[in-house]
Amino acid sequence: MEKTRMHVTIIDDNKDLLEVLSSSLGDTFSLDTFSEPEKGLDFIRNNHTDAILLDLHIPGKDGFQVYEEVKKAKSNLPILFLTGDSDLDSRVKGLEIGADDFLIKPVATEELIARVKNRISLSKRNVQNNKVIKFKDLSIDLDGHQVILTGQPVRLTPKEYQLLLVLAQNPNRVIHKDDLIQMLWKDVHVEVNNLDTHFSNLRRKLRPFSGHIKTLKNLGYVLRI
């Protein structure tokens, strides 16, 4: 199975630059680009992405505002500012609010790719080292293999727990049914309707949180947060 490429979302009002970045980064990353920040934010809230390249000065909503809105939706998502603004105060503010990097245009393609890859790798390691995954009223204790919903433990079968964990570690990313079967059953032949039954039971046990677990017809499952 071909390894899925890292996905990067780019928000910059300079459409010529977006074309240049798409050309230079497209062989390394899967990309979505936006010249309007609201459209970019809407995409980020509803889709999986591994990192964001963000311009600082965008008409209607500056990069710092976009940064804050992204962090409210997905706090662990790496954000790298890519801007023509070399003002020291802007760079200091960007790093002080928690930006993962602050790059001044122009940046060599090789360096940009390396910095983005590095930030994505660091983010994924931090998620893996986290002992508890939390979404609203749901907590998953990775050490204790325990799920807590609104303060009460939820009894899940091992397969139900594994299915929930895969979705929780990839929020807002659609996981194909065939991939789920391969991850959880490997060399054992399992019918798709068997997988659907496990998800049906999982949803029943996780009400009302189960509304966040979505089925995409003919594709797979996703945890929408």
Uncertain spans: none
CATH superfamily of the largest domain: Response regulator
Shape: elongated
The CATH top-level class label of the largest domain? Alpha Beta
User: Radius of gyration, rounded?
Assistant: 19 Å
Into which percent range does the helicity of residues fall?
40-55%
> Strand-residue fraction?
15-25%
Number of strands: 12
The helix-strand sequence is: EHEHEHEHEHEEEEHEHHEE
CATH fold title of the largest domain: Rossmann fold
The strands making up the biggest β-sheet line up spatially as 2-1-3-4-5
Instruction: Tell me the span between the first and last alpha carbons.
Output: 28 Å
Counting DSSP H or I runs of 4 or more residues, the number of helices is: 8
How much is the average pLDDT? 86
- The CATH architecture term of the largest domain is 3-Layer(aba) Sandwich
The biggest beta sheet reads: 5 strands, parallel
